[in-house]
Amino acid sequence: MAHFGKDLDDFKGSRCIRINSAEQTEQFTVYVITVNCGSHTWTVKHRYSEFYDLHEKLTASYKLDKSLLPPKKLFGNQSESFVKKRQRELEIYLQTIVLYLAQHVPTCLAYFLDFDKYEIHGITQSMAEDLYNRGETLLYSKEPYEATTLQLYSLTERLKLPEPTCESGDVKKDLGHILDFITRCKHLKIVCEKEPVGTSNILMNKVPYDLTLFKSLQTLTVSID
Which residues form the domain of 98? Predict the structure, then answer.
C-alpha cells in the first residue's frame, strides 16, 4: 500500500479522489467519495454539511479561498440535476485541496478521508496516539497487545520512509511512542481477517510485516477470522 502523495512530482488530485455517485434520503444527500492510494482504494460517505465543517477548519488554518467550496442551497437541493452538479463541484473541491495540501495532509482532512483506517501515516499516527494514552498500562498488564496485520504492515512501511517521527506536529502521534512500546512489549496477538478491510480492497492476509523490533516478545498468538 503506497502512502498518500508519495510521488508529488507526478501527483494529481483527479487520480486519487473521485465522487462517482450520490445517495439520496428523504432529508439529505450523501456523496460517495472514492480514494485511490497506490494500488488500494476505499470509499467514504459524507453529507454537504460535513464538507462545510471541513472547509471551516481548513480555512481557519490554511490560506484557502473560502469560495472554493460551493455555497449552501436551502431549496431545490434534492433535484437530480442539482445533485449531479453539486457532486461534480464537491469532487473538484476535494481534488483541489488534496493537491494543495498533499505534502502535509491536515488531521481534519485525514480523518475526513478515513486515513486512520486505510493509509500508512493515518494508521501509524492512530496507533501512536493510542499507545501514548495506554502504552504503560498495557506493558504492566499480562494481557497481549492486539494489532492487526494491516497495522503491523503500516508500521513496517512507515519505518522505511525518510521522514521525521512526528511529521504531523502532534506529539501524541509521534512514531516514537510505538517504537518505545514494541521494544518492551512481551505479549502480542496478531489479528487477521480474510475479508477486505472496511470499504477498501485491502486484504489483511496479503500484507507483509516485520516483527524484528519486538525484541522482548515472550508470547505470540495469531487470530484469523
Answer: 8-113
Expressed in angstroms, the distance from the first to the final Cα of the chain is 22
Are 55 and 150 contained in the same domain? no
Q: How many domains does the chain have?
A: 2
The three three-digit cell numbers of residue 126, written as one number: 492512530
Q: For 50-95, what is each residue's pLDDT tens digit? A: 999 999 999 999 988 999 999 987 666 678 889 999 999 999 999 9
Residue 185 CA to residue 136 CA, distance in Å, equals 10
Checking if the pLDDT of 6 tops 70, the result is no
Greatest C-alpha distance within the chain:
63
Work out the number of other CB atoms within 10 angstroms of the CB of residue 95. Answer: 18
Q: What are phi and psi of 191, to 5 degrees?
A: -110, 130
Check if the beta carbon of residue 1 is closer than 8 Å to that of residue 153.
yes
133: cell is: 494514552
How far is the C-alpha of 12 from the C-alpha of 58, rounded, in Å?
20
Sign of the torsion formed by the C-alpha atoms of 27, 41, 123 and 64: negative
pLDDT confidence of residue 8: 41
- pTM of the predicted structure, to 2 decimals: 0.89
Indicate if 60 and 140 belong to the same structural domain. Answer: no
